[in-house]
Write a structure and sequence with these properties.
Elements (H helix, E strand, L loop, with lengths): L31 H4 L6 E3 L6 E2 L3 E2 L5 E2 L2 H9 L4 H5 L23 E2 L4 H5 L30 E2 L4 H4 L3 E8 L2 E10 L10 E4 L14 E7 L8 H4 L4 H4 L5 E8 L1 H6 L13 E7 L8 H5 L18 E5 L12 E5 L2 E3 L8 E5 L10 E5 L5 E6 L9 E5 L3 H13 L4
Antiparallel strand pairs: 1-8, 2-5, 3-4, 6-14, 7-8, 7-10, 8-9, 9-12, 10-11, 11-12, 13-14, 13-17, 15-16, 16-19, 17-18
Amino acid sequence: MRSTRLSFTARRERSGLRRRTSPVLTAVALASALALTATACESGDAEAGGEATASAAAADDKIKIPDDIKDRLKEHGIDIDQWRDGAWKNWNKDDWLREAEDFVNPIIEDLWDPDRMREAEEPDQEVDDSDLSGDQGVTDPEPAPVQAEAVPASYHANAPEAGKVFFDAPEGTMVCSATVVKDPANPGKSNMVWTAGHCVHAGKAGGWYRNIAFVPSYNDAGKSAAELESATKEEVAPYGVWWGDWVQTSDQWIEQGGATGGDGAPYDFAVIHVTPEEGSGGKSLEEMVGSALPVDFNAPAVPKMDSMTAIGYPAAPPYDGQKLFRCEDKPGRLSITDADPTMYRIGCTMTGGSSGGGWVATGSDGKPALVSNTSIGPITAGWLAGPRLGKEAKAVFDEVSGKFAGR
C-alpha cells in the first residue's frame, strides 16, 4: 500500500467489527419509516482504518488538513491521529456530533477500497402501512408496481450524474445512492451532490455519520458481484472517490427524523459538497464526470406531471447493490402527517440501497431536472416516495452553494 500523502503516515487496520445482519436503529433513519427495506441505505462490515488525509488539495497535489477543520476537530476534542487510527468508531452518544454546524469529515485515504464498498448490505428494517397516519386526505391510490429496468453500461454514458454515497454508522458500513447537481455559484464546476438526509444524519436519535464519500458511476461497466471480487479500485470507482468536506440536511430531518413511521420523511434531503481523495488535476466533480443536473425547487404540481424517473443502486433481493437501475412512472401524492407537506410517490420495485437516488422530471423550464430523491417505501417493494423540494430544500442548497462560492 502506498504511503499517505499527509504530514504523517499510518498503517491500515481492520476494525474487527462483525457484520450485523439485523441492525436495530440505522442511520438511515428515515427510510426507516416506511419500510426502509425498500429504500434505505445498506449496512455491512464496519472495517476501519486508513491513513488520514485532509479535505483539500494543496497546489503541490498533496493533501493537507485545512486549519478550519483542525480547529473544528480540536473544538470537539478530536485528535486527528487518534481519529485516523480508529477513534471515529466511538459512537458514544455524548461524543456523537449532532448539530448542523458540527459536521467534520477528515479524509482517511484508502478507507473506501473495493471490498469495503462491495460488501455493504442493506439494513433489516421492516414497517408496514399502518405507520402511515395523519393523512391530509390528499393521498392518491397506491400505484401499481413498476418493474425497475437496468441502466445499460456504461453508466457514465447513460446516467453520468448517478453514483453511490458511502458512510459509516453505529450499525456498520452503509451505502445510499446520490446525484451530481449543478452549483449556480460555480457554473460548470460543481462539487455538489444531492442525496437523502438519512444518508448523512441519523435524525432525532443521533448525529452526523462519518467517513462520508461519493463515488460517481460506481461499477461503470456493470460487472457482476462475482466479477467485482477481483476488480481494481479504478474499475469500481473510475472517476475517483470524493469525500464530503461539508454536508447539510434540513433542520426538520435533524429534529424529527426517525427510524419508524415516516418521521421527517417530507424533509429527507441533503446536499454534500465534495473534494477528491486524490488529485483530480484541478478538475471539479462536474468536470470529471462531464455532467450535472440542475435542481428545480418549483417543479409542477403532481397533476401536471406526466412522469418521473427514479434512479439508484437497489441492494435487497432480488438486487445485489452492484448495478444501476431506474423506474419511470406518473407520480401521485402521499401524505404522512397533517402538518407536513405531501410527498411524491411512484410505482417502483427498487429496494434498499436506492435511498437518496435522484428523481428526474421535466422542470419548470422544460428541461430535465432533479425534483426529488428516494426516501421511503413499503416492506413489500412496490412503490417509492420522495420529498417535494420547496423553500426548505432551497435554503439548504443555497447555503452550501454560498459557502463555497468562487472556490
